[in-house]
Design brief:
The chain is of the alpha/beta class. It has twelve helices and twelve strands. The strands form three sheets. It has an eight-stranded mixed beta sheet with strand order 3-2-1-4-5-6-12-9, with helices on both faces. A two-stranded antiparallel sheet has the order 7-8. A two-stranded antiparallel ribbon has the order 10-11.
Length: about 300
């Protein structure tokens, strides 16, 4: 069983990613650490608990983390995810209690107590918690198996600015710390996540499950899809974050290559851009496995199959 920590800012697509992880017996979810991002920290914590209870997994450990980026004011995505971050379905206010420990301390303690390369970090939102943990206790870097993160974009450009993807843009300093940490990084950029769409037929299949999870996910994705369908003219919203978990489960569904990636921190025009040297123009060291292609049909089939196992 693979041990993982999910760092997240739920988010409808985060919710589907968390549900996929909780539905996968191959994965041991040690904890869910919350950060500010799609909405404020207080809401992301509540949302993580709502998702755990929807999956009938109230024993899952949920931790509150950093309430703002390292250096910058928080930018949210309420225009995409709604004022709660989980608009689209009326999930009850959670009864489960969040853990008293801070998310950063949990990440540090879990890694220091683990065997080397035993824990994978699955990053679904801005990288603030992970960057702060690395800065506070650098020893954890050698303990991490790898970090699989949803963030960035090259061929697809950005989705919050013309150059920058939201998760990286919200806290580019944190992204720079993580990307340049020496830890093995797998990046799921917009270039691949925009190929995995929650189409009308996919949502109908989810809804037809007739379960609490099926009804909840269908409602979330119907709301989520309205923004991206209008923006991109696509047949449904990109399922960004589930690709992190799907890659962990079935890496053969994806392809990419090792390249150098760096983060733009200074330019007003391209702040938060993931400068991806896909064509190996420079001789900078390769620090990221940059995923570009996906068998979207197999990923969507996996999601349906796994979600059916939840209540």
């Amino acid at each position: 069983m693979r041990k993982i920590i999910i760092d997240t800012d739920p988010g409808q697509d985060d919710a589907v990613a968390i549900l996929l992880a909780l539905a996968s017996p191959e994965l041991d979810v040690l904890g869910i650490t919350c950060t500010a991002g799609n909405v404020e920290l207080e809401l992301t914590i509540v949302n993580a608990c709502k998702i755990c209870e929807l999956a009938d997994r109230p024993e899952t450990l949920v931790f509150g983390g950093e309430a703002k980026p390292i250096l910058r004011p928080l930018v949210t995505a309420k225009h995409v995810h709604g004022k709660t971050g989980l608009d689209g379905t009326d999930l009850p206010y959670p009864k489960m209690r969040i853990s008293k420990d801070h998310a950063v301390d949990f990440i540090i303690d879990a890694l220091l107590a683990s065997k080397n390369k035993e824990i994978t970090l699955c990053a679904l939102g801005p990288l603030t918690n992970i960057a702060v943990a690395m800065t506070k206790e650098p020893k954890i870097k050698s303990k991490i198996d790898r970090i699989i993160l949803m963030g960035g974009g090259f061929f697809e450009g950005g989705n919050i600015t013309p150059a920058a993807e939201f998760n990286i843009f919200v806290d580019p300093e944190a992204a720079s710390i993580v990307i340049n940490s020496g830890v093995k990084i797998v990046m799921m950029p917009l270039d691949v996540t925009h190929k995995v769409l929650a189409t009308k037929s996919f949502i109908e299949e989810v809804s037809s499950m007739g379960t609490n999870v099926g009804n909840g996910v269908a409602g979330l994705l119907n709301f989520f899809g309205r923004y991206d369908s209008k923006k991109y003219g696509s047949d449904g919203a990109p399922l960004h974050d589930p690709n992190v978990i799907a890659f962990l489960l079935e890496p053969d569904y994806y392809s990419g290559k090792e390249i150098n990636v760096d983060i733009e921190l200074k330019s007003d025009l391209t702040l938060g851009m993931t400068v991806a040297d896909w064509w190996e123009i420079t001789d900078k060291p390769k620090n990221v496995y940059f995923v570009r292609n996906v068998n979207a049909g197999l990923v969507l089939e996996m999601l349906i199959t796994r979600l059916r196992t939840l209540p």
